[in-house]
Queue: 2 jobs
Job 1
Amino acid sequence: MKLQKVLFKLIVPIIAVMLGLLIGGIIMLSSGYDPVLAYTALFNGIFSDSYFIGETVRQMTPLILSGIAVAFAFRTGLFNIGVEGQLLVGWLASVYVGIAVEGLPAFIHVPLAILAGAVAGAIWGFVPGLLKARFRVHEVITTIMLNYVALHVTNSIIRAYLLAPGERTESIQPSASLASPFLQEITNFSRMHYGFIVALLAAALMWYILWKTTAGYELRAVGFNEHASNYAGINVSKNIILSMCISGGFAGVAGAMQGLGTYQYMTINAAFTGVGFDGIAVALLGGNGAIGIVLAALLFGGLKIGALNMQAVAKVPPELITIVIALIIFFVASSYLVHWLRNRINKRGKI
Amino acid sequence: MDYVIEMRNIRKEFPGIVANDNVTLQVEKGEIHALLGENGAGKSTLMNVLFGLYQPEKGEIYVRGEKAEITDPNIANKLGIGMVHQHFMLVENFTVTENIILGQEPIRKGQVDIKKAAKRVEEISSQYGLRVDPYAKIQDITVGMQQRVEILKTLYRGADILIFDEPTAVLTPQEIKELIQILNRLIAEGKSIILITHKLKEIMEVCHRCTVIRRGEGIGTVKVADTNRDELASMMVGREVSFTTEKGLAQPQQSVLEIDNLTVKDSRGISAVNELNLTVRAGEIIGIAGVDGNGQTELIEAITGLRKVSDGTIQLNGKNITNHKPRKVTESGVGHIPQDRHKHGLVLDFSIGENMVLQTYYQQPFSKFKQLKSNKIFNKAKELIDQFDVRTPSVHTEARALSGGNQQKAIIAREVDRSPDLLIAAQPTRGLDVGAIEFIHTKLIEERDANKAVLLVSFELEEVMNVSDRIAVIYEGKIVDIVDPKEISEQELGLLMAGSKQQRTGEM
């Protein structure tokens, strides 16, 4: 019974991935590329070298966190479209702490810098939470708008106070870095860093908060039914704000992973990083569950890294993988269609 | 004998349950045929089979003597079967006419000929006595009027077999009277009607014959003229049902709830409760009788902390609880069975187990150091489910999946189990069948006998008369009289509720 349930949950994403790859192949054929060659290159580009595996893990780390940020809000009845902005402020805050604070040992400096990212993201989530709780302003509008505010505010802060040659901040102190010579060495000098441990811990934390604590019970109750929550004496406004803060906090940590792990600094961003928006897709594909999100982030990370090899070997533009990802999302979103087809077939079979 | 509809030995299964088994329904031309059963007995499933929404596993359907394969609702429509759903399927910001013609619009020069359509709607509505304004928007008309639009929709499509799914559930008493006239008019014009209901009074009033389903099984068909309410009830529930609730004399003790000079404003800022005074004592049930909208909802919300009190005081066991937060009120000993169980009573997406601790999840033993103790929660839920006979596949089932009666039992289990000094029950039996009603009334009386104070609010006179020890009549936000149910008739009570005493004292 339990196994059946798990399989049932898996079936929609698996079918969606297969359909996405299949139609991606058809598009390649019609544009004159060889899909077999391309997919072989894609596969090799993920698994053939420990370097690619390391890069995949690096790519997946912030995706897990942004996916969790989206899913956490979603589980409590909110659409946090502002993960991108929360990620940017989290990135800047963690990098700032990484640069400005000196003389700390790594076991204090690293958590402190991550915490700074989380707090900054939480503050960026607090604003739409407050507006929703107090004035019923829809969080989709405010979070989208705050993405732009975050993008330009972080850029201008870097320009005004933290600018180093190369349109970026200085690098962080080694004591704040998540980078690991050991991990780099065993993955053939990829940029893999310790951040994936943080991401996995965060996934476990989301699950724990939502399902194992009274706070999670309240958050979910408010998300499902504000009236009944109010009836049960749960403070609805407080929980809306709290949910946006926690969600923003996860997003901020995603930014910290970029700052303390992958890059060691923050650049001036001409456009959004996209990691925050990808989080929406990851959460959707992962069914808003902790394990699902980790798997979905792994898939997306792998596809993105593998796409580079696909371009090198099969000359297929990496944009095609973006199309495949889009198709996967499309098929997950239309899982309704899959259910409908399944029912239809069952019905036929029985008559 | 030819039947317009004949469903023979229908069986319909869903994964894990048999929703219909061996059900036979035979409807004669020109009759109103009742389909009676408890909540969740399988009435709607059977009608969905007839309407082509489900395919039966076994059994045959004959329409006007001919075997029919109804595989989707369009075929049902073509066969002249129309359905008036309990939850209306109307476009709120379309007009009456636009809603009726939707999908079958008369076209002229590539445009919808709305005038012609409106004329046709008027013709049909005058033929059947269905008063509507063809140009009114759905959002601006009453629920009773919306239902007429639904009926017109089926007639416009040429239906002559009409299925009504719980048509009176959403109507006021006045609208119910009008609906009954409409039903009689329809059969006078040669239509046949299937009426899905669990209200025995309606069946006795309008129906000719009645088919009973119990837990998915066809129990049989009876002529309404040859039967009575008690017999129908026992066919439906499967045992004897008493309509008058058995109870001993009340032994009121000290006062538990004291409301003094209470004024509460409604959402528009108008005083809905107006300098109201009321005392409820331990060991008695006070029934609040009144027409809907006379301040009952606001009064309960004020006591339970869900609405702000503008003036006056509320005391519980001598302690002031005026304007306390809902949780504080609950903790000081108030249980509340809310009027709208879907809106306030349950988190429908939570499991039934999680719903059982909605008021206590943060207390020991259900949580410790802010961590939920799932074992304790689900054990408690299992205990309550057994004790209150909540029928659910498991404690992990979503509350949404339960029938209305079982949802209500779950709420009552949760509220009564905390053994509050004051139990407020607002419309506790709305939409429930006789079996569940009897159960809930018994529980309220048990609470009284356990020396608790019970405040019952109901719009159903019969319920107030049956269960209460004293009746407080509410009119325009004031308690205008307190009467003994044994010394007053329904008519007299009805007059009081309509404000007759108010006028009398006003004249003096």
Note: The two ends of chain A are 26 Å apart (CA to CA).
Job 2
Amino acid sequence: MDKAATTEKPEFNPTLASTAVGMLERFGVVVLGVLLLLVVPLSLDVFRLGLAAKYLCFAFPAVGIVLIWGYGGILSLGQGMFFGMGSYMMAMFLKLESAANPDSSSGTALSAFFGAAGLPDFMVWNSIEELPWFWEPFHHVWITIPAIIILPPLVAFILGYVNFRNRVGGVYFTIVTLAIAAIMAIVIIGQQGYTGGINGITDFKTFMGLDLDNDTAKYVMYFITVVLLLLAVLVGRFILKSLLGRVLVAIRDQEDRARFSGYDSAMFKAFVFAVGALFASVGGAMFTIQVGLASPSLVGIVPSIEMVIYAAVGGRLSLIGAVYGAFLVNGAKTFFSENFVEYWTYFIGALYVFVVMFLPLGLAGILDKLRDVGKRSG
Amino acid sequence: MFALQAFTGLSVFSILMLMALGLAIVFGLMGVINMAHGELMAMGAYATYGTSVLFEAYFPSLMSIYFIVGVVLAFFATSVFGYFLERSLIQFLYKRPLDTMLATWGVGLILQQLYRQFINPRPVEVPTASWLQGVWQVSEDVSFPMSRIFIVGLAFLTATLVYLFLYRTRRGLLIRAVTQNRGMSGAIGINQKRVDAYTFALGCGLAGIAGSSFTMLASTAPDTGQAYIVDTFIVVVFGGVESLLGTIMSAFFIGQMQTWFEFYLSGSMARAGILLLVIAVLYFRPNGLFATKVRR
Amino acid sequence: MSKILTVSDLTVSFDGFKAVDDLSFSVNREELRTVIGPNGAGKTTLLDMICGKTKPTHGSIKFKDLELSKMVEYQITRAGVGRKFQTPSIYQDLTVFENLEISSPTERSVFGALFFEHTSESRRKIESVAERISLQGQLKTKAGKLSHGQKQWLEIGLLLMQEPDLLLLDEPVAGMSARERELTAELLNDIATGRSLVVIEHDMVFVKMIAQTVTVLHQGKVLAEGSMDEVQNDERVIEVYLGR
């Protein structure tokens, strides 16, 4: 049953060896840090910076996908579910904060009119009279933030461990992730009164008193996002450079053998899957703060599969590549939507085919090849 | 009431079964996951729609049989497309099943956009032939719409033909030989590439027939197929990929559950409930509900 | 001599076909046992069940004080059973060094592996095993680039790193040249000191090189057991091998 996972091997160099990928990983964090902390904020206006921040939020799940897909050999087509968990938990907090602050929220004015103070506007519109129990904890930021960090990885770990222990691997696990992402989107859309339905949760004002429309707040949030993203890349690098990274490659390529080397391979795969979920969740939370929206359109199968292409474009074995991949693909998306919307779908469709057929190692792979050629001639 | 509910389940089952059979052949026998399978179903539906438009314009007197022509055309259009898809893309990816999912997803997105741009961004409907409009009045309270009876019949006919093809014809024998032992079948001179392409084309053709049937139940939109793809995968996995009979039973089971859940819950929550249930069952029977124990 | 492995009434059936049928046999501590038998006798299936790859339908496999039939692969490995497969099963994309490193029993938990640091001792152990399997010069080579014989040795090396008390080897000389066979026989005799080995083999010349006690399987049951000479002269064994 998990044969499929072990045969998944386009010809590439799987370890962080002394290749261009390795070089990029080594100096890349510094280069990326300079780009994101200095070049981008100094060269873009606030509106464009907001776009950059949005793209970077999508880089979080992409970095996670490099870990779980490139090194763990697990293709998750459901990362939108973890992105969505982070996003919605943050949105619940922001919404409650807005609803509790009467002057700044139109929703509260409305709810005051209906006599349900402190209730999010969409609940009032859906004639929900009392705050549902699972919203209660999100009054407090010190519950919200740990929940964003703990819950999605926990869910991922359990889901992963249960399936991997049962030898549900390869394409089967991929289908399970796909189905769960679909379920989550269906439930969110179906339970409009509790989740805001298809419109999502939107119209936030402040985050812990910080006015989110304010330019300074936007810069602050941008820098927090960049720091968190660099941290995610460094954590990923630490994992890959440790013995754990080599065990993951071993499990990816020869899971049977790894079991007979004494490794509980299910535990390792579930662990890396949980790390991927953590990154996605943090990305989702930062997205909601900065874009001001939590939406089912970022949860279901279409966005989930799109997150994989970010990692694939950058190179499935390159953590840094995933950041560039997320940036480029999302940049292209904005470009198309500003110029010729109808061609975006053709473009991204063709991108899937092209990358899989001709660039299985993504941009990092091109770099690798160039370096090899350089070495040979020089 | 009971019979009616069960029968509604049966027509959902027909669509799911045809979709899943096509996918199971491609996935179970060839190990390839075709994420564009839903768009192929939509292609079949559009082919049927196209036939109805043509007949209305040029042979209005033959409108009563356009649907039959539509089914055949749907099958041919999708299988020819499938043939070329296999030759141009899939054949290079047999060793990378996960990558195949991404590539075929891309193909699906392109197809969707083509439908949107060149057919109609909004849902289209086909006229129902007069002889399919009636109902079969069983008793005073119980009546079955003819169109649904027809769909169920078509599904069973197709399933039977597929069975006969795979187990009673020479070409079917070749397909089974190649899937069971690639090395050996190559050694005895079977042209595997040809067989692969035909098998893939057959799987796609079945999606086409599913699409045709679908037009009898609802209107077709560019993203209709995408809405069905997850359910179809679940049917195949639930049935145990190696067995076509398992796929049929699994489609029946899920189709029935779907209607029953819908009876008590809203439609979307019913779908979520079923998917969750199947995932839970997979926990206990990871090889699918109807798989037999085999030596690995 | 005390037993390290006791298999009793072991049966497994696949779709009604009994690959191993009510089989009982045992292996002593520090014994090198060779298992032979015609194709389909159930040799590989027997090893699969001991190491946890296949679950028996019923019967018991006692290893030291542990009931292996109730354990999963990694637990069995950690208990001290090593398995070598018929086709070399190594990590093609890791270097020889990394292959051996991964097989070391020191850090097998997720966090243990995450924070693992080499000591001079752990490096020395890897180097000494590499020397024993004649791969000391290839520590930085990707395992996939080794010759077939070297891959076989590397797999034996992985098992040495594991320091098992019982080593299960499935046709260790399959596909090797005559010279490589001799070296492998030496290697196995060398390894056998201090641990028990069960070796499946078809090649009678090789069996003669290593054999102490030979068990003959036929149709999932033990047909005969004894020294190579005894077995070779056994009427039933001759009948099975030569047909009537």
Note: Chain B touches chain A at residues 27, 31, 33, 89, 92-93, 95-103, 105-110, 112-113, 116-117, 226, 230, 233-234, 237, 266, 268-269, 271-272, 275-276, 278-279, 282-283, 286-287, 296 (CB under 8 Å).
